[in-house]
Amino acid sequence: TVFTAVELILNKGWNYQQPWLEEVKLIEGFPWHQTGLGRARPVREWLKLGVKKRNKNVIDYFNDLETTLILPQGRYGPKFLAYPNFKVFMKWNNSFMYSTTAAYLANRLRGDPVFISQGPADILDFGDMVELQEILHELGYAVGKIDGILGAKTRQSVRAVQIHLGFPADSWPTADLLKVLKSI
């Protein structure tokens, strides 16, 4: 059977009545450990935790919709509420960064401004990422394949070790985190 692009989107669960990704701002002292894929809650609960609108967008209309607060580059990078339609991006390509980029590009094409960034720490280079994964694996964290790629399991492991060490749990591996882990 030949599907049109619209049929493909609908078969993956796209809801035309709902958004996919919305940039937000966070209050000082936000509980970073609440963020990340797998920790969805209704928009109204995010608002109570200190999520603030950045634009005129849709946040007011979907208070009961389950969303996830994602930080693609940690707490100093852009911050987004990912709505259920974001999962459709993830079904097309299960890469968190690819799907986030595609969803953000769609926002830019509709006229959204460039995202706010506070200058996140650079991502670890390949060698450092492999070393981080090896250390986390040795400590008992499930990083998945040790391949130098910041995938979902490595992000979850980074988050878990950040919580354990008392770091802000934003799932973003930094050189400072790696340095601390090397000293353990």
**Overall strand count:** 5
- Largest sheet strand order: 2-4-5-1-3
Q: How is the biggest beta sheet arranged?
A: 5 strands, antiparallel
Q: Helix and strand succession? A: HEEHEEEHHHHH
Shape: globular
Helix segment tally: 7
Low-confidence stretches: none
Structural class: alpha+beta
Radius of gyration (CA) equals 17 Å
Helix content: 25-40%
* CA distance, first residue to last residue: 56 Å
Helices, strands, pairings?
Blueprint: H1 5-11, E1 21-26, E2 41-42, H2 43-49, E3 51-53, E4 66-70, E5 80-82, H3 84-92, H4 96-109, H5 126-138, H6 152-165, H7 175-182
Antiparallel strand pairs: 1-3, 1-5, 2-4, 4-5
Helix pairs in contact: 3-4, 5-7
Descriptive overview:
- The chain is of the alpha+beta class and 184 residues long.
- It is built from seven helices and five strands; from the N terminus they run H-E-E-H-E-E-E-H-H-H-H-H.
- The chain has helices at residues 5-11, 43-49, 84-92, 96-109, 126-138, 152-165, 175-182, and strands at residues 21-26, 41-42, 51-53, 66-70, 80-82.
- Strands 2-4-5-1-3 form a five-stranded antiparallel beta sheet, sandwiched between helices.
- Helix 3 packs across helix 4 and helix 5 crosses helix 7.
- The radius of gyration is 17 Å and the shape is globular.
- The termini are far apart.
- 29% of the residues are buried.
